[in-house]
Each structure stands twice: as structure tokens, then as C-alpha cells.
Amino acid sequence: MQVESTLFFETPEEIYARVFRVVNPRTIPPEIHVEFRRFANANSSIRLENGRIAVKITDLLAVAPAPILEALAYILLSKLYRKPIPQNFNHQYRLYLNRKDVRTSLHSLRLNRGRKFLSGAQGQCFNLDHLFEELNAKHFFGLMARPELGWSRRPSRTMLGHYDPSHHVIILSSILDRPAVPRLAVEYVMFHEMLHLKHPVDHRGVRRCVHTPEFRASEKKFPGFAEAKLLLKHL
User: Fold this and answer.
1) Which tens digit of pLDDT belongs to each residue from 140-180?
2) Cut 0.70: pTM above it
3) Phi, psi angle pair for 53, to nearest 5°
4) What DSSP character marks residue 84?
5) Where does 128-233 sit in CATH, by number?
6) Among 154, 232, 219, 227, which residue's Cα sits nearest to residue 186?
7) Buried b (16+ CB within 10 A) or exposed e, 52-65
8) How many helices (H) and strands (E) are present in the chain, helices listed first?
């Protein structure tokens, strides 16, 4: 794919029109509208409706350098027209998002704009506050500060638990809060999420490693690790 470049100032619409001519060289660019939106994350979207391309970009990128907006244009337009995404642009964009200052800004967006549903720690069968404190005393010398705890609104089978560092919240899937679910399985999921407090995400270049080698090593020290994994597999 031949790449064009420019040294003069372009509007976002002009950037997308120029990139469109590279992605679809035999097609006249349609009307393009680019809008920066107050999203609570770094997501951006693109849609083709009634012969018009609508692009919605997180306002986190409103002050991003032009090459970053150009890289995102290649990514979104390539996805829209099911073309291979140029790796150099994908790498450039991911590298920018992984910069410490950008991650700090994104954390602030999630904290101030994001909403987090919290059902409370007491479920029908398990109390997450009690569970956390028991695991804290047994595995972390009681030194781990307790985050907000709650059950998910929907009983997800694919995401049994997650830790949200922006809101300092651990959420467990409500599918675990049933009499038929062994306590060991619930303890393991909570232990796994607690390890995210001990082993934060590792950012290196474009890589974002959620489960580091140190995380995996600590996880395997959970008593009944293999049994708990097997129980969850059959859940």
C-alpha cells in the first residue's frame, strides 16, 4: 500500500479523505464527517450510512499530533473496507496510546466519566467483603487495602470477574452467587482479581501485559488451583 504524507495543516476531514484515496484508490471519497466525542475510554468508531462516512473519535485524541490521527484514519478506514491494516500505522497508534501521559489522561477520563454499577458485597450465597478479608489474611498478610466489591448486574459466563483500576473496584459475575457453585471456585476468582492489585498491568512499548509472569507464578500458589480451574471449566 502506497502511503502519502503531507507537511501542511489538514482538518480531520481532509486527513480521512486523503487516507481514503490510498485505501480505495479507484473510488471517489464520499462525504466525511469527523467528530470528537466525550467518551469514557479511548474507543473510536466509523460507519458508512447513506453514502456518508461518520467518524467518532474520543476527545482524548483532540490534541494528538496529526500523524496519530492519520494512523487512526488508516486503521478505521481499513477496518471499514475490510482491508489489511498497515502494521506501521497500527504500531504507531498503539505506541501513542501506551505513552505514560496518555495512559494517565485515559485513567482520568474513566474515573470522571465512567459509571460503575455496584450491587453491594452481600449476595444470595456469598458475602464478598468477608471473602476478601479471609483471603487477605490468608495470602496477603492482611495488608491489602480492600477496594469496592460487588456482583455483576448480569450473570456472565465469559467474564467471571474483573478489577477496574480506575474506580478501584472488583466485580464478580453473579453466576457464581449460587448454591450449586463450590466456595473454592468463588475464592479462586476473587484471589485472581486480588492479584491484579498486587501485580499491576505492565506497559512496555506497544505491549500491555495484564497477566505478567509474576502474576502467573503467584496465581499458581493458590491452594486447590488446579481443582478450582476444573470447577470453573465445568460451570
Assistant:
1) 988 888 988 999 988 888 899 999 887 788 999 999 999 99
2) no
3) -95, 125
4) P
5) 3.30.2010.10
6) 232
7) ebebbbbebbeebe
8) 8, 8
